């Protein structure tokens, strides 16, 4: 059904750039159970990105876009930063907000979509950096959670303002010295996951993007909970390899090192009782779906 | 109505003025404009057809409003545009090369667009320069992006621009139609067919 909405006029198909032909023919819009394993076998919803070689943010983008449960019914809201360089290449509706007001935009958008498309599922997903989420936009971030707005907030936490040369951010770890913060951070990393929990988020996760299956799971959970219950928050470590003095190939190891049990990105999850109930229900349905699919496959063989 | 300012092929200069700010106004229904002067729609049809037939590389740039089959109207327009393109191709001499190049989206594309297969409103001059396009028609491009492109083209190239607009027309095009429909595009194709052989082809 979803692919019906994005048909190229037949007379124009042959002149369209290949990336659009691929999006129509081989993308996973409308596919039940889509996920990161589709990467490599179908058209991804991201074209050549413009981030640095080896940037963990690009990995995060690919996993997230592959994991959205219904990309054709999703609107993403971005903010200023490296993410805004990627959104022009993304095959999902997106809005670029002013620096920091992404959660305010998403609040209005979610409400407008529910009025415009009553009875239809429309997901809103905010994706912004730590500067936009925690420093400049903290007011909007928190107010959206207080109001129990039904959308997901994803923070790409690289612990500084990477796009502008390495200034200190609220999520920077204590004592870290950056190119534009030579004195070193003098106070602790803001505990936003804990603040999110206390502010009313029903599903909160703090992790890295080193494991695609984990990213897929938390993205799907966060979106399903936001759809049915209320705000959700994901804080994903996407280190800026340039600003922390690493090479292109070292991003993955940096994330692995930072997710050890004693480190600041050790997997941390908070799920409200309501959300737990919903996720259990969804997991049971997913199990049933997979069993049915397996059975069907066995029948064919 | 005549105006002092004429919307003519460029290169005018880096930032040409918006034709509207120079007193060029949009046509009323049933009218069109040539170089900023309001004319009868048939006169504009003839002028556009002559441009296609006398250009070395007459080109149509269809935009997202017709590239995608949003609805029946859009699909009909796409069929009409293809017909117009085929008609131009059949009507020009072997030394001329008709082209149909899409403007699939408006995003700033990094690191660069491929000018052989597409045109981007943020730097339409790249496609025009690369393919040496000397007459083009915009159709199915959202107005604000068409305005931007038409000004950049007038500023930096010698290309003759025609706008087949579904709304009120474009002051910044050298020839502009308004209220475009599939029938109107077919009428333009008829004009091209009618004038075939009567327009002097470009000299090498």
Q: Please state the second-level CATH architecture of chain B.
A: 3-Layer(aba) Sandwich
Topology, number of strands of chain A: 7
**CATH top level assignment of chain B:** Alpha Beta
Tell me the distance between the termini of chain A: 28 Å
Secondary-structure element sequence of chain A? HHEHEHEHHEHEHEHEH
Explain the overall architecture:
- The complex is a heterodimer of chains A (301) and B (204).
- By secondary structure, chain A is α/β, with parallel strands linked by helices.
- Helix content of chain A is 39%, strand content 13%.
- Chain A is built from 10 helices and 7 strands.
- The two termini of chain A are 28 Å apart.
- Chain B has 204 residues and is an alpha/beta fold.
- Chain B has a single domain, classed as 3-Layer(aba) Sandwich (Rossmann fold).
- Chain B has helices at residues 41-54, 64-67, 72-91, 124-131, 143-156, 182-195; strands at residues 31-34, 37-40, 58-62, 99-100, 135-139, 160-164, 175-177.
- The relative contact order of chain B is 0.22.
- The chains are: A alpha/beta (301), B alpha/beta (204).
- The A-B interface holds A 6-12, 15-17, 20, 48, 50, 85, 88-89 and B 62, 66-69, 74-75, 78-79, 81-82, 100-102, 104, 107-111, 114, 117-118.
Q: What are the main properties of this structure?
A:
heterodimer, A: 301 residues, alpha/beta, seven-stranded mixed beta sheet, 39% helix, globular, B: 204 residues, Rossmann fold, 14% strand
Lay out the secondary structure:
The complex is a heterodimer of chains A (301) and B (204).
Chain A: H1 18-26, H2 56-67, E1 74-78, H3 83-86, E2 93-96, H4 102-116, E3 123-129, H5 130-136, H6 138-146, E4 152-157, H7 192-198, E5 203-208, H8 212-228, E6 232-237, H9 251-258, E7 268-271, H10 273-300
Parallel strand pairs in A: 1-2, 1-3, 3-4, 4-6, 5-6
Antiparallel strand pairs in A: 5-7
Helix pairs in contact in A: 2-8, 4-6, 5-6
Chain B: E1 31-34, E2 37-40, H1 41-54, E3 58-62, H2 64-67, H3 72-91, E4 99-100, H4 124-131, E5 135-139, H5 143-156, E6 160-164, E7 175-177, H6 182-195
Parallel strand pairs in B: 3-4, 3-5, 5-6, 6-7
Antiparallel strand pairs in B: 1-2, 1-7
Helix pairs in contact in B: 1-6, 3-6
């Amino acid at each position: 059904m979803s692919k019906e909405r994005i048909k190229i006029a037949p007379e124009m198909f042959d002149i369209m750039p290949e990336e659009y032909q691929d999006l129509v023919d081989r993308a996973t819009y409308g596919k039940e159970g889509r996920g990161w394993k589709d990467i490599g076998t179908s058209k991804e919803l991201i074209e050549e990105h413009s981030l640095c070689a080896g940037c963990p943010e690009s990995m995060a983008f690919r996993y997230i876009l592959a994991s959205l449960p219904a990309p054709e019914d999703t609107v993403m809201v971005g903010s200023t930063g490296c993410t805004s360089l990627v959104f022009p290449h993304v095959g999902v509706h997106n809005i670029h907000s002013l620096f920091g007001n992404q959660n305010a935009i998403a609040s209005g958008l979610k409400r407008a979509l529910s009025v415009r498309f009553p009875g239809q599922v429309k997901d809103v997903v905010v994706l912004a950096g730590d500067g936009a989420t925690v420093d400049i936009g903290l007011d909007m971030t928190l107010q959206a959670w207080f109001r129990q707005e039904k959308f997901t907030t994803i923070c790409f936490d690289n612990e500084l303002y990477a796009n502008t040369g390495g200034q200190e951010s609220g999520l920077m770890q204590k004592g870290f010295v950056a190119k534009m913060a030579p004195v070193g951070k003098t106070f602790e990393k803001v505990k936003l996951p804990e603040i999110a929990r206390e502010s009313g988020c029903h599903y909160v996760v703090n992790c890295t993007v080193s494991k695609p299956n984990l990213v897929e799971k938390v993205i799907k959970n966060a979106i399903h909970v936001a759809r049915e219950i209320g705000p959700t928050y994901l804080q994903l470590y996407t280190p800026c390899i340039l600003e922390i003095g690493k090479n292109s190939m070292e991003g993955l190891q940096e994330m692995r090192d930072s997710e050890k049990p004693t480190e600041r990105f050790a997997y941390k999850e908070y799920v409200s009782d309501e959300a737990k109930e919903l996720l259990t229900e969804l997991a049971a349905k997913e199990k049933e779906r997979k069993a049915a699919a397996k059975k069907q496959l066995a029948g064919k063989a | 109505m005549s105006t002092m300012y004429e919307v003519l092929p460029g290169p005018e200069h880096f930032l040409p003025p918006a034709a509207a700010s120079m007193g060029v106004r949009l046509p009323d229904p049933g009218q069109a404009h040539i170089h900023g002067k309001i004319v009868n729609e048939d006169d504009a049809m003839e002028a556009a057809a002559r441009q296609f037939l006398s250009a070395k590389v007459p080109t149509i740039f269809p935009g997202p409003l017709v590239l995608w089959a949003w609805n029946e109207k859009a699909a009909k327009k796409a069929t009409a545009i293809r017909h117009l393109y085929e008609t131009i191709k059949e009507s020009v001499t072997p030394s001329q090369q008709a082209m149909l190049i899409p403007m699939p989206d408006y995003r700033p594309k990094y690191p660069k667009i491929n000018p052989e297969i597409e045109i981007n409103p943020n730097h339409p001059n790249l496609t025009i320069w690369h393919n040496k396009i000397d007459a083009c028609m915009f159709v199915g491009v959202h107005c604000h992006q068409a305005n931007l492109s038409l000004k950049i083209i007038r500023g930096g190239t010698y290309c003759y621009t025609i706008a087949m607009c579904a709304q009120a027309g474009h002051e910044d095009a050298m020839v502009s139609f308004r209220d475009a429909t599939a029938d109107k595009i077919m009428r333009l194709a008829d004009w091209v067919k009618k004038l075939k052989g009567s327009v002097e082809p470009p000299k090498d």
